[in-house]
UniProtKB/TrEMBL annotation:
Pfam families: ABC_tran. Belongs to the ABC transporter superfamily. InterPro entries: AAA+_ATPase, ABC_transporter-like_ATP-bd, ABC_transporter-like_CS, ABC_transporter_ATP-bind, P-loop_NTPase. Gene3D superfamilies: P-loop containing nucleotide triphosphate hydrolases (3.40.50.300). Keywords: ATP-binding, Nucleotide-binding, Transport. One of its GO terms (molecular function) is ATP hydrolysis activity. Residues 17-253 form the ABC transporter domain. SMART domains: AAA. This is NitT/TauT family transport system ATP-binding protein.
Length: 272
């Protein structure tokens, strides 16, 4: 899963996740596709770190690499100081697609299955109590014995989030988890995710191509240029709200990111 122990890792001040100069190239039958180009960033404990960029800039590719599914062509991904070489229960991925649950298992059985197979629990009893705890957190206690096909898209995503958090990963990886939802449900799910974060302060890496969503969900935002993805800027979006109180700050940051993505020419990494 991870290579040998790194004695230089100090949990008090080291990042949980370090992505260093990561370039990822796909080899197709007749050509290479460079998805990301020398991307670097650090994610610290309890960050809500967002990768933001237009379609095709390599956000999903980066997330899959962090998940251990795609090795970088160049550069390194390190989790708690150890090089990521394959998937592991310390990094749980939540996808956009609604079919990420096992359709032949109930909501509660889906969470129990992950807990036992991911090695988090040894007994069904222990897994059941953790599953019920997290299903309650996502307000799905009443639907614990339902099968996935009887749930709405938003409810299925809540199960996937409960399952992810129940695993207590070092970092929760979310790839446009709300993109396929209707606009109202999407806003509601963003708020619910923030409420959950307030309770447990889990470390989150969240991919989106929506500027609004990045500002609402993120405490830090990495803006990536169009294909191939390079770091355009890293921004602090801590304490931004979409309510009236923060409206002018919110729209100033929104406009700034919009310009970076669609107006300005690529520049070196800019701090904020
Ligand atoms: N398996 C693959 N084989 C070849 N090229 C690929 C593969 N997967 C992705 N790509 C290419 O890599 C680039 C980055 O794709 P990726 O899906 O990571 O971007 P993205 O930013 O997540 O896009 P979106 O927001 O549309 O999901 C694109 O040019 C894409 O066509």
């Amino acid at each position: 899963m991870l290579d040998s122990f790194n004695p230089s890792y100090n949990p008090a001040c080291s990042p949980i996740l370090r992505v260093e100069n990561v370039t990822i190239r796909y080899q197709t039958d007749d050509h290479h596709v460079t998805a990301t180009d020398r991307v670097s960033f650090d994610v610290f404990e309890s960050d809500r770190f967002v990768l933001l960029g237009p379609s095709g800039c390599g956000k999903s590719t980066l997330l899959k690499s962090i998940g251990g599914y795609i090795p970088p062509t160049a550069g390194d991904v390190r989790l708690k100081g150890k090089k990521v070489t394959e998937p592991g229960p310390d990094r749980v991925l939540v996808f956009q697609e609604f079919d990420q649950l096992l359709p032949w298992k109930t909501v509660r059985q889906n969470v129990i299955f992950a807990l036992i197979n991911g090695g988090r629990c040894k007994t069904e009893k222990e897994a059941d109590s953790i599953a019920l705890h997290y299903l309650d957190k996502v307000k799905l206690s009443k639907f614990k014995d339902n099968y996935p096909h009887t749930l709405s898209g938003g409810m299925k995503q809540r199960v996937a989030i409960a399952r992810g958090l129940a695993m207590k990963p070092s970092i929760l990886l979310m790839d446009e988890p709300f993109a396929a939802l209707d606009a109202l449900t999407r806003l509601q799910m963003q708020d619910e995710l923030l409420e959950l974060w307030e309770e447990t302060k889990f470390t989150l890496l969240f991919v989106t191509h929506s500027i609004e969503e990045a500002i609402v969900v993120g405490s830090r935002i990495l803006v990536l240029s169009p294909h191939p993805g390079q770091v355009r800027a890293e921004l602090n979006s801590h304490k931004m709200t979409r309510g009236e109180a923060g409206a002018s700050e919110f729209s100033a940051l929104h406009d700034r990111i919009y310009e970076m993505l669609f107006v300005e020419k690529p520049t070196a990494r800019a701090g904020a």
